[in-house]
Amino acid sequence: YAPWCPACQGLQPEWEKFAEWGEDLEVNIAKVDVTKQPGLSGRFVITALPTIYHCKDGEFRRYQGARTKTDFINFISDQEWKSIEPVSSWFGPSSFLMSSMSALFQLSMWIRHCHNYLTENVGIPIWGSYIVFALVTLFLGVILAL
């Protein structure tokens, strides 16, 4: 979820009611703020918010059913998750491909942080920050080419 997302805010009350049933259903129920954990949005290929995954025994299934407390409880208690095909091992969160995607998301957040630091704290104009990143990119390209 993301705190600015209207759909996430709408789901919040139902998710909290469902979370109260976690112990009874013998499951851990959590939420992750993708604005604070951008690597996870890359690792799980989050393209829409909110996105819900069911994880069991190292297998990940994307939940796409109705979003009420009762539907969530039935999904677990009736083991409806067994009818959903797990995410392919190629696209599983622990695969090399998704680990690389996560690293790229984290890199992009670091670059954004550096850009904000240069423009807000150092006082470099936005175009100046772009020039700095262009020069760093060229320099790294030359170093890697050698």
Automatic annotation (TrEMBL):
It is a single-pass membrane protein. GO terms for molecular function: disulfide oxidoreductase activity. The keyword Disulfide bond applies. GO terms for cellular component: endoplasmic reticulum membrane. It comes from the Eukaryota. The chain crosses the membrane at residues 122-145. Residues 1-77 form the Thioredoxin domain. InterPro entries: Thioredoxin-like_sf (IPR036249), Thioredoxin_domain (IPR013766), TMX_domain-containing (IPR052454). Keywords: Disulfide bond, Electron transport, Endoplasmic reticulum, Membrane, Redox-active center, Signal, Transmembrane, Transmembrane helix, Transport. It is found in: Endoplasmic reticulum membrane. Gene3D superfamilies: Glutaredoxin. Pfam families: Thioredoxin. This is Thioredoxin-related transmembrane protein 1. It comes from Cuculus canorus.
